C-alpha cells in the first residue's frame, strides 16, 4: 500500500471563533460550536476532548482491536514480552481505553498514560494504571525508562517536522532493547463519491495548512530509522467504512463522528456555516457504504537497540 493522498493545495486562513470554557478548566479547554477542545496554543490537534469524543474513542478502540486481532501488533513477538512484568507507557492515550484493557489483562505490569489534555479517567481505573498530562514534543516527565511504549493516532496532532522530535523523546524514554508500537492512519478516506470528495479535498487542505502530512502514517519507518530505532515490523490494513461486517458499518459511523468533531475548523475551511457543514457531512456519510469507502492504517513495531 503506498501513500494515501495526492498533493493538496494550501488553503486560506479560516476565521475560527473560540469561546473560553466556564467549567473551571478554562486554561485547558475552549468551547466551539458546543464542543470542548484543548487550549494548547502550539498544538495543531483539531479533534474535541469532551465526553462525546471519549465515547467515540472508546468505540474506535474496540473496532481497531477487532480489526488488528488484539491490542498488540505482531503478537507472536509482543505477547511473549508481557510474560514478564513490564513498565508500559501510552502517549496521547486519550480516555485510556487501550491502557485499561492491557492493565486488566496484565495485573503485574505497571501502566502509565499521558496526554496533552486531561481526557483520561481521573478516579476510576485499575490500580496498576496512572495518568498525567504531558506533551510528546517535550522530554517525558519520568525518572525511569519503559519496556514498552505505545502510540496510536497522532497523525492529526503533529506537524510533519514534529515526528522526529516525538520519536526522539520516545527513544530516550525507552530502556535499551525496549519496544515501541505505533499505529497511524491516513485521515483522508478513499472514496469516489463526489460529495465526500469535496469534504476530503478540504480536509487535505486543512491538514496541509496546519503543516501536517496526511501521508505520514505510511512513511513512519523512515523517521523511526532516522531516530535510531530498528524497525521490526510494518503492516498495512484497509478499514472499510460503512459496508461489510457490522463492525465495518460502525467504523463508518466513527469516521463520520471525526468529521463532525472537526466542524469548527472544517466549516471555516469550506467557508460554510457549521450547520451547513454538518448537513454536508451527514449527506456524504450516507454514501460511504454504497461507494465502498475505506481508510488505510499502518502499524509498526520498532526497538531501541540494546547497548553493547
Ligand atoms: C485521536 S486521539 C487517540 C487517542 C488514543 N491514542 C486512542 O487510540 O484511542 C489523539 C490523542 O492525542 C492527544 N494529543 C494530541 N497532541 C498531543 C501531544 N503533543 N502530546 C500528547 N498527546 C497529544 C489528544 O489530546 C488525543 O487524546
What features would you describe in this structure?
There is one protein chain. This protein is of the alpha/beta class. The protein has one domain (27-303): Rossmann fold (3-Layer(aba) Sandwich). It has nine helices and ten strands. It has helices at 51-68, 75-81, 97-105, 163-173, 194-209, 220-226, 246-261, 263-270, 274-285; strands spanning 19-20, 29-32, 35-38, 87-91, 110-115, 129-133, 146-152, 174-185, 230-240, 294-303. Strands 6-5-4-7-8-10-9 form a seven-stranded mixed β-sheet. Strands 1-2-3 form a three-stranded antiparallel β-sheet, with no helix packed on it. Strand 7 (146-152), helix 4 (163-173) and strand 8 (174-185) form a beta-alpha-beta unit. Helix 1 runs antiparallel to helix 7, helix 5 (194-209) packs across helix 8 (263-270) and helix 8 (263-270) packs across helix 9 (274-285). The chain is globular and about 55 Å long. Bound molecules: S-adenosylmethionine. The site of S-adenosylmethionine has 23 residues, from helix 1. This is Methyltransferase domain-containing protein. InterPro entries: Methyltransf_25 (IPR041698), SAM-dependent_MTases_sf (IPR029063). Pfam families: Methyltransf_25. Residues 88-178 form the Methyltransferase domain. Residues 1-32 are annotated as: Disordered.
Amino acid at each position: 500500500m503506498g501513500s494515501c493522498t495526492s498533493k493538496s493545495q494550501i488553503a486560506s486562513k479560516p476565521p475560527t471563533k473560540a469561546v473560553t470554557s466556564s467549567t473551571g478548566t478554562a486554561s485547558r479547554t475552549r468551547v466551539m460550536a458546543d464542543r470542548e477542545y484543548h487550549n494548547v496554543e502550539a498544538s495543531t490537534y483539531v479533534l474535541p476532548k469532551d465526553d462525546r469524543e471519549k465515547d467515540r474513542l472508546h468505540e474506535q478502540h474496540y473496532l481497531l482491536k477487532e480489526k488488528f486481532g488484539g491490542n498488540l501488533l505482531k503478537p507472536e513477538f509482543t505477547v511473549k514480552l508481557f510474560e514478564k512484568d513490564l513498565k508500559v507507557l501510552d502517549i496521547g492515550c486519550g480516555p485510556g481505553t487501550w491502557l485499561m484493557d492491557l492493565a486488566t489483562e496484565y495485573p503485574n505490569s505497571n501502566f502509565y498514560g499521558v496526554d496533552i489534555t486531561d481526557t483520561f479517567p481521573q478516579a476510576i481505573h485499575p490500580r496498576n494504571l496512572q495518568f498525567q498530562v504531558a506533551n510528546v514534543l517535550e522530554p517525558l516527565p519520568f525518572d525511569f525508562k519503559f519496556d514498552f511504549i505505545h502510540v496510536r493516532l497522532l497523525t492529526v496532532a503533529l506537524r510533519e517536522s514534529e515526528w522526529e522530535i516525538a520519536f526522539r523523546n520516545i527513544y530516550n524514554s525507552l530502556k535499551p532493547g525496549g519496544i515501541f508500537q505505533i499505529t497511524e492512519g491516513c485521515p483522508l478516506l478513499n472514496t469516489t463519491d463526489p460529495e465526500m470528495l469535496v469534504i476530503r479535498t478540504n480536509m487535505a487542505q486543512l491538514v496541509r495548512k496546519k503543516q501536517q502530512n496526511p501521508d505520514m502514517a505510511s512513511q513512519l519507518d523512515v523517521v523511526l530509522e532516522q531516530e535510531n530505532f530498528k524497525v521490526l515490523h510494518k503492516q498495512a490494513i484497509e478499514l472499510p467504512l460503512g459496508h461489510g461486517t457490522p463492525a465495518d458499518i460502525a467504523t463508518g459511523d466513527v469516521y463520520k463522528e471525526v468529521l463532525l468533531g472537526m466542524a469548527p475548523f472544517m466549516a471555516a475551511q469550506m467557508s460554510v456555516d457549521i450547520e451547513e457543514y454538518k448537513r454536508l457531512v451527514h449527506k456524504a456519510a450516507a454514501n460511504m457504504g454504497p461507494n465502498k469507502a475505506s481508510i488505510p492504517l499502518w502499524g509498526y513495531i520498532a526497538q531501541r537497540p540494546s547497548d553493547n
